[in-house]
Amino acid sequence: MPFPSRRKILRGFLNGAAVSVSLPLLDCFLNDGGTALAAGAPMPLRFGTWFWGLGVTPGRWKPTVLGRNYDIGPELKAIEPWKDQVSILSGYDVKLDGKPNIPHGSGGIGFRTGVAPTGGVLPAPSFDVLISDQVGSSTRFRSLEISATGDQSNSLSGRGNGSLNPAEGSPAGLYTRLFGPGFTDPNSGEFKPDPMVMARKSVLSAVSEQRKDLENSVGAEDRRRLDQYYTALRQTEQQLAIQLEKPQPLVACKIPDAPPMGEVGNQIEHVVVNHKVMAQLLVMALACNQTRVFNMSFNQPASSLTRLGSTISHHQLTHEEQIDPKLGYQPESTFFVERCMEGFGYFVGLLASLKEGDGTLLDHCMVLAHSECNFAKEHTVEGIPVMLAGRAGGRIKTGLHIDGGGTPATRVGLTMQQIMGVTVDRWGTGSMDTNKTISEILA
Q1: Are 112 and 126 in contact (CB under 8 A)?
Q2: Is 90 left (phi over 0), alpha (psi -120 to 50) or beta?
Q3: What does DSSP assign to residue 121?
Q4: Which of 24, 214, 232, 272 is the most interior residue, by most CB within 10 Å?
């Protein structure tokens, strides 16, 4: 059977069936207390990941006290103002089951997918994608991927089988994507559907009648790829349909000014500035209901960050810098860890500063921050450092230090999925297969 022609696909764009779309959150939908929608539905939840590369310094990040009132080490100072809203998860391991530890690859990929990889690509869907399938269909963007270093490949989000969600790498590019062509001001009294969006809306309908015949004529691997392809097309239809609906006013949504063109690259001084600008844009994208799922990367797993006047990268330093006998750690390497932690603290502060309903945007978010290793000098994937910020609409407790005691890191991903409404009882493969959540954080 021949594959549908380009003409048929174009005809599908124009004649596809409409997709129903949920309305964005309005203040007038809230109950008197601002704790829920007037009709009884809960406030919307957002889920995001915040990644930093090359782990932490032994003895300087992990608290020594469990539970509430955990101690703040030197590398956690940046989150101290938000300590009651940030939990520290330590002692969760990526289990390799005899597979080689791919430097700066196994930890991040295993943590996100629940599968110990044999190569440098995602072997299965990352848990953020599974969550976006649950909560991301009612917004313009199913998810947003962002990299403060400008590296579009700096992403741990994807559906597996080599599929990767590319990251937006510049503040100017992110601004254009969010607030340029295609953005509709929810507070504007005028609305006119974009003809280009109308022409693209129904991608899948042109091939729907032939789909089953085509799937029956190809092998198992191609059927799997077709299923992934059709899923992506259906999701595209949903996102396009949303853009054809007039949005309702959102009080917290304020269109920001376009950021100035700046330097994009690995120099830490530029990365800090770009991260701040991109974090501000992301927070406003959440407030404007452009997305409910995001993945922000401060630097890469094998961090190529450098300092002004130096060509030695963060990655090089973790391997070549000697441990100072008096300090007991690598001071130049630790400098970059502290900048990463400051970046996360800044982002949490932004979320906490924006009022929403009876609380803040942070109260209605769950932000999972993690790295791809523990101690970079040794590439350790035991005890992957994790921080969890926000109350997820009251679903989780905050301000705790919980030690997993060497249990699988998939407990974290399983817990995140269940909190966000994904129907899953167990997750992971091999030694990382688990049905045990982190019950200590559940409210």
Answers
A1: yes
A2: beta
A3: S
A4: 24
CA dihedral angle for residue 375, residue 376, residue 380, residue 382, rounded to 10 degrees: 50
Give per-residue pLDDT as tens, 333-389: 999 999 999 999 999 999 999 998 889 999 999 999 999 999 999 999 999 999 999
Is this prediction's pTM over 0.85? Answer: no
**Tokens 């853009």, residue located:** 243
CB 152 within 8 A of CB 166: yes
Residue 393 DSSP label: G
Q: Could you tell me which of 243, 302, 274 has the C-alpha nearest to residue 146?
A: 274
- Which CATH architecture describes the domain 43-186+251-441? 3-Layer(aba) Sandwich (3.40)
- Cβ-based burial of 33 (10 A; exposed 0-12, middle 13-18, buried ≥19): exposed
Quote the strand ranges of 4-68, DSSP E. Answer: 46-51, 67-68
**Beta-carbon contacts of residue 196 (< 8 Å; ≥ 6 apart):** none
3-state class (DSSP) for residue 36: strand
Q: How many H-runs (helices) and E-runs (strands) does the chain carry?
A: 11, 10
Region for 393 from its dihedrals, namely left if φ exceeds 0, alpha if ψ lies in -120 to 50, beta otherwise? left
Q: Output the six-digit token pair for 35.
A: 């704790």
Tell me how far the alpha carbon of residue 389 is from its chain's centroid.
13
Q: State both tokens at 131.
A: 């969550």
DSSP-assigned letter for residue 17: P
d(CA 418, CA 366): 12
pLDDT number for residue 194: 56
Secondary structure in 3-state letters for 353-386: HCEECCEECHHHEEEEEECCCCEHHHCCCCCCCE
Q: Where are the domains of the chain?
A: 1-24+192-245, 43-186+251-441
Which single residue is written with the structure tokens 């688990």?
434
CA 54 to CA 316: how far, in whole Å? 11
Taking only Cα atoms into account, the Rg of the chain, rounded to an integer number of angstroms, comes to 22
pLDDT, averaged per 10 consecutive residues of the chain (443 residues), comes to: 32 35 40 52 83 97 97 97 98 98 97 96 97 92 97 96 92 94 65 50 52 66 63 54 52 81 93 97 93 97 96 97 97 98 98 91 97 97 98 97 98 98 98 98 96
Angle at 327 between CA 324 and CA 333, to 5 degrees: 60
Nearest to 313 by CA among 85, 16, 54: 54
User: Which neighbouring-strand residues pair with 293?
Assistant: 47
Please give the pLDDT value at position 245.
55
